[in-house]
Design brief:
Layout (H helix, E strand, L loop, with lengths): L2 E2 L12 E8 L7 E7 L5 E3 L2 E2 L14 H4 L5 H24 L5 E5 L5 H8 L3 E5 L3 H11 L3 E2 L10 E7 L8 H10 L1 E12 L4 H6 L13 E2 L2 H10 L2 E8 L2 H15 L4 H17 L6 E8 L1
Parallel strand pairs: 6-7, 6-9, 7-8, 9-10
Antiparallel strand pairs: 1-5, 2-3, 3-4, 4-11, 10-13, 12-13
Helix pairs in contact: 2-3, 2-8, 8-9
Length: about 300
């Protein structure tokens, strides 16, 4: 296993960090990882972290649902029910921004559930998924437009590019942002969904907050840091939207991390509290969708 340490903040480039939190990988390795915070721009990131060649082993779990589609256990069954609702909402979102239904790329498309819904809705779809198992499941639904890397994708330009809980996983953050933006049509839309480290559930669960998900999550965004990242890449935010179901799902996982048990009542109550807090305090929901266009 090989690890790498970042010497510069990925957003502002400064070198001064402070330790923010030590978090255990509850999914695979049971190792502990440090999350640091940039003293200049407040961006939080896992540091040190497994390098590109080593990170794959940290995804080798049947519990990693976006790669396996497993329905084992109450948490995963709940995930599937919610996913059917949120997939419909995602399609409605892209249709609102691009009514003409052109070309869409889902970067980190997992097993292809969202892209399949887009295809059925009349979109011309492409996907990138580096995980071999997930990629084959996606191809079964969609066909050979699912590729391992962006370089293999034939379509030159896209009307919409989406990253649903993907950006926090990407080692080459700035390089990938540049590559994706270069594949957008002039009026194209970039849609990025990430967990929000300023949410009420993040503050409540602290090191047990499931959405830290170290070391798979390399970055831990907030509204201010995502805005700084978009500005760095000459993108303008059109809107910021909540993913309200995430508060309940993340609370279920966090309760299990904390006590080793799935506590449905506590999870529902804490998810409701998190959403209520966000509604009254600056939109800081458990997860957020950022919709951006070029300046």
């Amino acid at each position: 296993m090989s690890y790498e340490r970042l010497e510069h903040c990925p957003i502002c480039g400064k070198e001064e960090f402070k330790n923010f939190l030590v978090v255990t990988d509850n999914t695979v390795s049971k190792e502990s990882f440090v999350i640091v915070e940039c003293e200049n721009c407040t961006f939080k990131f896992t540091n040190p972290r497994p390098d590109v060649k080593s990170i794959g082993s940290y995804y080798e779990s049947d519990d990693y649902i976006s790669h396996s589609n497993t329905k084992t256990g109450i948490i995963n069954r709940a995930y599937h029910v919610v996913r059917s609702i949120t997939t419909k909402q995602k399609v409605e979102l892209i249709n609102r921004h691009v009514p003409a239904k052109g070309n869409i790329l889902d970067y980190g498309c997992g097993t292809g559930v969202f892209l399949n819904a887009c295809k059925k809705d009349g979109w011309k779809v492409s996907g990138v998924e580096p995980n071999a198992k997930a990629r084959e499941l996606a191809k079964e639904q969609i066909g050979d437009t699912i590729k391992e890397t962006l370089a293999e994708v034939a379509t030159e330009k896209f009307d919409v590019i989406t990253l649903w809980h993907v950006l926090e996983h990407i080692h080459t953050l700035n390089e990938t942002m540049d590559q994706l933006i270069s594949r957008l049509n002039p009026e194209g839309v970039l849609i990025v969904a990430v967990p929000n480290a300023d949410s009420h559930d993040a503050q409540q669960y602290k090191e047990n907050w499931a959405a830290y998900d170290v070391p798979r999550h390399l970055y831990h965004f907030t509204q201010p840091t995502m805005k700084r990242l978009m500005k760095k890449h000459k993108m303008v935010l059109e809107e910021v939207l909540p993913m309200k179901f995430d508060a309940y799902y993340v609370s279920m996982l966090s309760e299990k991390h904390k006590d080793g048990k799935t506590k449905m009542l506590s999870s529902v109550m804490n998810g409701f509290k998190s959403n209520s807090y966000a509604e009254k305090n600056g939109n800081d929901y458990s997860s957020l969708i950022f919709v951006a266009k070029r300046k």
